[in-house]
Amino acid sequence: MGIRFVLMVNKQGQTRLAQYYEYLNLEERRALEGEIVRKCLARNEQQCSFVEHRNYKVVYRRYASLFFLVGVDNEEKLSALHQLCNNLDLPIYNKSGEGFNHQLIHPKVEAGLPNELAILEFIHLLVETMDRHFGNVCELDIMFHLEKAHFMLEEMVMNGCIVETSKSNILAPIQLMDKA
Amino acid sequence: MEIKDSALVWHHHDADPDFGSCQSKELLSHLENVLANEPAGVTKGLVAEKVLSMMVNNGKAPDFVMCIGDDRSDEDMFESILSTVSSSSLSALPEIFACTVGQKPSKAKYYLDDTADVVRLLRGLANASNPKPRQTAHFQLDLVELSRSFKTDPIMNPFSSGTRLRDMIRAIRACKTAAEERAVVRKECASIRAAISENDQDYRHRNLAKLMFIHMLGYPTHFGQMECLKLIASPGFPEKRIGYLGLMLLLDERQEVLMLVTNSIKQDLNHTNQYIVGLALCALGNICSAEMARDLAPEVERLLQFRDPNIRKKAALCTIRIIKKVPDLAENFINPAAALLKEKHHGVLLTGVQLCTDMSKVSNEALEYFKKKSIDGLVKVLKDLANSSYTPEYDVSGITDPFLHIRLLKLLRVLGQGDADASDTMNDILAQVATKTESNKNAGNAILYECVATIMSIEDNGGLRVLAINILGRFLSSRDNNIRYVALNMLMKAISLDSQAVQRHRVTILECVKDSDASIRKRALELVYLLVNENNVKSLTKELVDYLEVSDEEFKGDLTAKICSIVEKFSPEKIWYIDQMLKVLSEAGNYVKDDVWHALIVVITNAPNLHGYTVRSLYKAVQTSGEQETLVRVAVWCIGEYGELLVSNTGVLDVEDPMTVTEADAVDVVETAIGRHSSDLTTRAMCLIALLKLSSRFPSCSKRINDIVRHLKGSLVLELQQRAIEFNSIIEKHEKIRSALVERMPVLDEATFSGRKAGSMPAAVSTPQGAPPKIPNGVAKPTSAPLVDLLDLSSDDIPAPGSSGGDFLQDLLGVDVSPASSQGTNHTQKSGTDALLDLLSIGTPPAQSSSSTLDMLSPSQDNKSSVDVLGTLASPSLSAQSSSPVGSSSMMDLLDGFGTSPSLPETNGPTYPAIVAFESSSLKVTFNFSKEPGSPQTTLIEAQFLNKSPNIYSNFVFQAAVPKFLQLHLEPASSNTLPASSNGSITQKLRVSNSQHGKKSLVMRVRINYKVNDKDVLEEGQISNFPRGL
Fold first, then answer.
1. Which family does it belong to (chain A) (predicted)?
2. Which residue of B has its CA nearest to A43?
3. What are φ and ψ of residue B97, in 5° steps?
4. How far is CA A20 from the centre of its chain?
5. Per-residue pLDDT tens for B680-705?
6. Do A81 and A120 share a domain, yes or no?
7. For residue B108, what is the enclosing H or E element?
8. C-beta atoms of B765 and A93 within 8 A
9. Looking at chain B, which residue has its C-alpha nearest residue A81?
10. DSSP code of B158?
11. CB-based contact (8 Å) between A174 and chain B?
């Protein structure tokens, strides 16, 4: 699925949970969060839940005062770029100036096409899972139980892929922890 | 029973449950802060104390004390009970059960989860204290259950993270400014660092939890990494768990930390506790590097067959990371991965399918294997899944596990791509999914979307494709923006397969371009861009241009770029092209990129029958949209070139409305543009050139134009000032050549321009989808005619080829080097060339021109190269310079008024001051210098000797010696007798050739012999005060 990050942000744009599945340094992270949050929070209810930003496609959903944002690879952009360059018979360069390998991304790039609707469904699953654990989950629950929220996310996503979609399977180890 | 004096109750029964609950917690947290200092008086604590003491006084001492409360005020009660009981004079101390409800920091030793548990507890107690014998059997059991229902002190639980984490979060929340927050974080970080350096064991997990919070806020936390390692190495599960979490969050790309952790992970992968194995796998899957992948692959491979499915699923995802890091390892995993596809557990299936998908991407061997062995199985799994009855655990709005659906469809897509047999096998199930899936919920639509993507990617089956396009059509007409967005997305894929089918939806797609939602607009615009062809370009462009008028400011940039690109690519005729571009320029000229209007100018010059029409349209457009910078530029350029067509109304097309423009009106336009505050340097410079040209075309306005130009002589911008001075000089002093100087530009070469654009594509790769490329730096091909440089003078690094250098110069101002006006001066007179070059602003400092985007007259690089070219051309005939300065008069006059021009001294020929080469009490020698034309190395020196003494010198001989790089030739002296008392002189000519001309100065030793009163005298000296440059 290629999830690159999961963010939870409140109405004021303060980050409440951030999990990245690729390495970004502190400045990049802050800048990215700022830009994305500004973009998403400015949108209204009627507008669609997808925003393209840099190399990410951001899928977001609002629950009361909390925004859940998930960034996925915008592989489409890569493939479009690739096609363009192929047509013109040009090498592709990434931002650091190194050449991309055509073969690596081209023939199978279609498979990586993100399914935005599925990500939206995933966000809902995440919220339902947290709801089941915290009971009407809210910003404060996540703030004061940050590590629990992370544990749940960890049970659901690993290395950018969804691991488990059953709420009871996700919560089982956490409940076990609480009992211990 | 509850009587309250005053109470403030805040209900949120009818509110939105999520929002209400959230707000109430927010309110609670505020109230707790506000009410922290409760007034002294009656508290539950005091009451409890009183009740207890009353019971004791009445002789009924309690067996045990149990108080349960969930409130802040109950905390007093818990505290006072402890103190009362322990201080009272009871013989036997009663057991105390202070119990709070909900897990939170409290003085109570026990807690219950919620009120239901309280009721259960009370019921249990009631049963236990019921004297009926029937119940006694249960008595013990109930007590056991009772004691079990109490949970341990929250403070002892590491994941309640202690009060201090809570305090820190509160403190951070209370911060009103970023500065305050920073201060709190700094303090916390300091204390955590201190704890780390003291190797504090007890609070390690809590400190790490704090660090995670601080990390989330975006502060540096790298110093906590080693703490993670320590926690991971500790034996307990809770410590390990927070340690691994911290590792995944705080890790930066420091390899040494990864190296240190490898061993711990390896141990944990072999741990007997499956949860610990799970933790290690999860961490490995998130952070593993290539080296770790090699080290730990065998462990992961083994775990793929572990008995617990929860481990298998994590091992599967771990494998994905490993094979991505080290693709060579993929073949080891093919069999275990294929085995996962036969699992029943959804989690394992989900991750197994994902693993196979990713494996097929890195290894062709795996791809072939799965194609051969797994497709039937996968089709069956999907079929079972689609037909499965209700399974509560995985149900999402009536569909069983949509995530697994989507994963399976993705894998089928990979396997079916380019493989007709495989595609054939999956046709049926795809058709079933496409037709049977409910489309009224998001989950169903997600599956349909994926299914369409798969149908589009696998080998062609006409029926399925029609089905897929129909689904997209339905999506497109949906009211849900999300659905429309993905439909547009998918149509972009479909267009390459079946553009006819997509064309059918053109109208709907065009509507989407005008949507209020930026994401949808962007998608739709890109789709429209792909939809354009020769047949529909006119109607689509019209729609887009019309929309440009009302679109959002932030969308105009994208929209403009796309329209320009469409128009350029598909334009059926020039007049249409010009019309559309003018509309775009008047609506959104400020968003148009430079190369677009450059291209427009090229097209205009190439359409001679449209010159009049264009300049009149531009004149009209600029009246209404004068604030669009690029429109103004193009208009000014055209008025400068074709101004007379504007006034004379020549070449009127049928479609035009007649209009009368006077010469003064045309000049008005340029004057307004030059005076406008927002105009930038390029525009103003272009205006100046236009004015210069108009000054010759509109004689009636010549004086007014000169006034404007003169006014700009005071401009603070060097560039403008210089041009104004030069142009002013042309207008005032060079009436004869002016008209020749300002002739119309020759037609710009379209092919060369487009060639350059194509050559610039590498720079434009960053803007895919055909966005107009920017003109590149330094990629000009040597073959490109210098004409094109007119439009892009800013940054060519490659010098124009020598042969065309001269042309280039002439063309810059449309100078017609006709035999009548300036033949001879141009290529024989250095001075003349200099004058021309100077006209063209050679003096512009390079920094300035390199910064401006386009600058008609200050092409630093090109001009320099031209100077070189002309300099070499001119040098062989340098001799003309000193001997015939008059010959270049017409051009040289251009320089009048340029007293400070650096080229002035050279044009007047070199002159050097005379020096006193030698002087003693009796003799004075002066040198006069002159240069021989055409050989700058050679200096002619005329030495003059004067006798200062009252005696006559006879046998006067002058000798000189020079270093090796000089050659000296002495001519005979005029006499060998020097009269006394400066009454006469001897002159002698010397010719010195300097082989190091320009590098070394002349130097000379002299010796002078003469006889005074029959007595030989010798004088010697060194002359080193020659002027520079000889």
1. Belongs to the adaptor complexes small subunit family.
2. B517
3. -115, 90
4. 8
5. 888 888 888 888 888 888 878 888 88
6. no
7. none
8. yes
9. B768
10. G
11. no
